[in-house]
């Protein structure tokens, strides 16, 4: 779905990831941004944030995705992390009941700390580990899964989580779809079960978030607008109340769109 | 906690966070702890509840109608960032700048003969400025032109002055500058806190004037920039850099002891009954016995080198005489009020997301000279107009008693009374040298650019 560059300006939104360690936060983002998956990712190192565009019919949303960088481990996430986030993806592992409880705590934290209009999506990851998944990802299942398998075929590391399709792995599921969905509804959260490994529901998740973010609330942000108008490397005198840009080319970017 | 770390860092002040960010990027395994449940230590920015809790032990009084708690980020130390200074360079080189947004501070003012005047930021303002008479302006212009043309390698531009040897007094004399102009240049531009510089070699003062004018030229209005949401964003941003490179963060951890072996060499720290081992420790003075008679080990590791008084004032109007600025610095040179050290006022407001709408936060500070420090800041408080509420603290400044290289215990200095972060960066370079035994070289982080 590339090509056809519409002359629409991308709206940049900050999206933060939350959830217990090792539920697959970074893997979901890696799948979304690079359509890639690593079986044994070490805890997140080296990436400040990734960006990825999401094209909708009437607009382009450019996600600036912030990873916790492990600061969630001992509850030491800085307020800066939540600051100005328009969306949050709260991840749990459907094979670990305790991770949903952690997710609920993060939702509470977001409601306390973050912007009141923030769009929160609850995501049960590791759908590939159970075979009964309700999310019969209707759209483009073939493409996504073949890609993923292609990646996996390279080095098959010793992993107990390997064979997703093999029969009786159902009992790995510890969080039922109904339970999580009910909670999500009660708390007005978007809800998905997904797999970073196969790619199931990953782009659907981000597309839905992009559709749900109230753009009106983002557009007329005076400070941002002024900063953009001031331009990069605006070394000259700037008008009253405008922001300044210090470095040049200061944003990490990953190409592509969804 | 069985893991062993290369470095444990105690306290999440800006100095410590820059160091742990740089050490993590360098590949060191860092554990960073703080006794508070918030980032920033002595350089934190607090919301209203935290502010009142810290100073009064009570919630904010409803009667003052200060607005929403979360709209506040009140700095505990009054500092701005010189836009062409070393901290800016560090922010850009580490790419930490991407986590932050900055605004130019709207104006820099200086107190003279009972009133405040803007430090001129343009030629036009200089011509109109009441700070100097017509002839003095001409002499001052000659002085600035001299600085502009001065080149180390070209003796013809030195006009017979060896600024590395001659005193600043000699320079002032050569250009025939009046005492008031000297006050202005030495205190409002070179940002010296007292007059000791006058009899010392001129070079450092001239470097500082050049830094000031370059910073002023970068964005206009004033030489300073300030981060939205307060100075507390700075340590958070460097902490994130550290975390991204594998640093582990633990807040709300009381440190029971800093442990050493029989030779006095650091072995680890104990927190919550658990002991974590590491090769080295870096920390702010409060973790090494500052303010206590004797540390448990019996060794005196930090000494008091002075005291600073700071008054955080909540206002519902801009400071009179500052052209309704959303932010400003006002310097009261010591000579003007018969003191040895200058009095500084720094003000920021809702324009910087540090206070509710129509609220200004002003901080008056100076180095304590007498036994009644509250009286010393009166000349500053008198410029503010009506103060809604005021929090005064008298803070001892500490410095380590030794470089710490023998014990692998590296203690940082308290935040001084200067109005900017240049000394904080000097401190970072110094501690790095002590910890690593080599000079800190800033490498630019790899940045992927959009295709």
UniProtKB/TrEMBL annotation, chain A:
Domain of life of the organism encoding this protein: Eukaryota
One matching Pfam family: Ras
Residue segments, region Disordered: 133-179, 217-258
Biased composition (Acidic residues): 140-152
GO molecular function, one term: GTP binding
Keyword Cell division in record: no
Keywords: Nucleotide-binding
SUPFAM superfamilies given in the database record: P-loop containing nucleoside triphosphate hydrolases
InterPro entries per the UniProt record, alphabetical: P-loop_NTPase, Small_GTP-bd, Small_GTPase
Protein name: Putative GTPase
Annotated organism of origin: Naematelia encephala
UniProtKB/TrEMBL annotation, chain B:
One of the record's GO molecular function terms: Rab GDP-dissociation inhibitor activity
Origin: domain of life: Eukaryota
GO BP annotation list: protein transport; small GTPase-mediated signal transduction; vesicle-mediated transport
A Pfam family assignment: GDI
Signal peptide: none
GO CC aspect terms: cytoplasm
InterPro entries linked to this entry: FAD/NAD-bd_sf (IPR036188), GDP_dissociation_inhibitor (IPR018203), RabGDI (IPR000806)
Protein family: Belongs to the Rab GDI family.
Record's protein name: Rab GDP dissociation inhibitor
